[in-house]
Amino acid sequence: MHLIEIDQITKSFADTRALDDVSFYIDENEFITLLGPSGCGKTTLLRILGGFEHPDSGNVRLAGVDVLKVPAYDRLVNTVFQHYALFPHLNVYDNVAFGLKMKKLKDSDIREKVMHALKMVRLENFAERRIQPLSGGQKQRVAIARAIVNEPKVLLLDEPLAALDLKLRQDMQYELKELQRNLGITFIYVTHDQEEALTMSDTIVVMNDGKILQIGTPVDIYNEPKTKFVAHFIGESNIIPAVMNADFDVSFEGQSFQCVDAGFADNQPVSVVIRPEDITLKKRPGKINGIVDAITFKGVHYEIIVYVNDKEYVIHSIHPQKVGAKVSLHFEPEAIHVMHDV
User: Fold this and answer.
1) CB neighbours of residue 2 within 10 Å
2) CB pairs under 8 A, 24+ apart, for 15-23?
C-alpha cells in the first residue's frame, strides 16, 4: 500500500480550473517534488493535502484513511510555509514548543522533544534566541523544527527556500535532503525552481495548467522528457523538428542520424531534444554546420549560440569560440532524444 494515494482530484476557483483530474501516489520515506510554473496547481494540491483547501471532487488517502474527512489539525501532516509563519513575540524554544503545549503534554516531555528537534536542525544552542534577529536560514530551520517536533508522517514544504539568497538556498537544499534521510519521513516539496527539484528529489511531478505532464526520477525527467514543455522547463534544450525514418534512425537538418529510440511509425514527424552540454563544436565541416552568433561566460562553462539554417542552437562548452566562426555540431546517438511531436 502506498503512503498517499491521490485519486482524480479536481479543484476550480471561479472559472479557473486549478487542478484537473490529478492522480498519482507517494511512497513512504519519499522526497517528492511538485514542480511547475506559477499557477500550475502545485500549491493548491499541497493545500488540499494539508487540509487548507477541499477539492471539488476526488479522494486523498493517507495510510488507507480518507483524509478529506479529517480536519487539518488531526492529520498526520505538518506544513512549512514560504514565509515561515513564526511567532515574533516568542523565542525559538517557545515557537517550536507551541504545538506540543496546545496538546497539553508534560513540560519534561515537551523539553525533550523540542531539544531533539532543534538538534536535528542544528539549532540546539539557539533555544533562548529571539526570532527577529535570526538570519533567513535560521528562521527556516526553526520553522522546520516546529513542524517535525509533532512527528508527522508527512512534511509539506511550500517553496520554503524562495526568500533566501542563492548561496544559502543551495546550502539548505543539501540540509533538507539530509534531514529527510535522517527523519525517515515523507517530504512533499513545492517549487518552480528546476535546480532545487533535480538536487533534492527522489521523484519529480511536473505540472502545468492543473495537469500532471510527467512523473519520474530527476534523471528520467531530465534525460527523457515526454513533452516540449517538460524539455523546456527542466534545464535548457535544443528542440528540433525531425522525422523518424525507422527504428534507431532519425532525420533533421537535412541529415540522417543514428539514435537509441524505437517504437515510432516509419516516417513519423517527431521532435528531437539535444541538451546543450551534449553538443561538441569542431572547426572542420560536418553533417550540421553553422556560424557562432554569441558567446557568454557562465562561470563553469561558456554558453555559445550557433545559427544553423536560421535556427538557434545553444551549446555549453568549456572551450570558447570566436563570434563569426564557422563550426560544425557533433553529438553521440545517446544524446538524441526522440519524442512525439506534441
Assistant:
1) 15
2) 17/209, 17/210, 18/44, 18/210, 19/44, 19/45, 19/48, 19/55, 19/210, 20/209, 20/210, 20/211, 21/58, 21/211, 22/58, 22/210, 22/211, 22/212, 23/58, 23/212
Q: Say which residue the cell 471561479 belongs to.
A: 14
Q: In the block, which residue shows the cell 493535502?
A: 49
- 216 shares its domain with 310: no
Residue ending a domain, choose from 167, 196, 228: 228
CA-CA distance, 328 to 288, in Å (whole number)?
A: 6
Instruction: Please give the residue range of the domain that contains residue 95.
Output: 4-228
| 93 plus 194 within the same structural domain | yes
pLDDT digit string, tens, across residues 246-297: 999 999 999 999 999 999 999 999 999 999 999 999 999 999 999 999 999 9
Q: Measure the CA–CA gap between 280 and 329, rounded to whole angstroms.
A: 6
- Kindly state the cell numbers that stand for 88: 515574533
CB 153 within 8 A of CB 185: yes
Residue 132 gets the label, from left (phi > 0), alpha (psi -120 to 50) or beta, of: alpha
CATH number of domain containing 317: 2.40.50.140
The CATH number of whichever domain residue 49 belongs to comes to 3.40.50.300
Residues 24 and 130 in one domain: yes
**Helix, strand or coil, per DSSP, at residue 81:** coil
Count of domains for the chain: 2
- Determine the Cα–Cα distance for residues 174 and 163; give it in Å rounded to an integer: 17
Whether the full predicted model's pTM is greater than 0.85, yes or no, is: yes
DSSP-assigned states of every residue in 252-273: ETTEEEE-S---SPTTEEEEEE
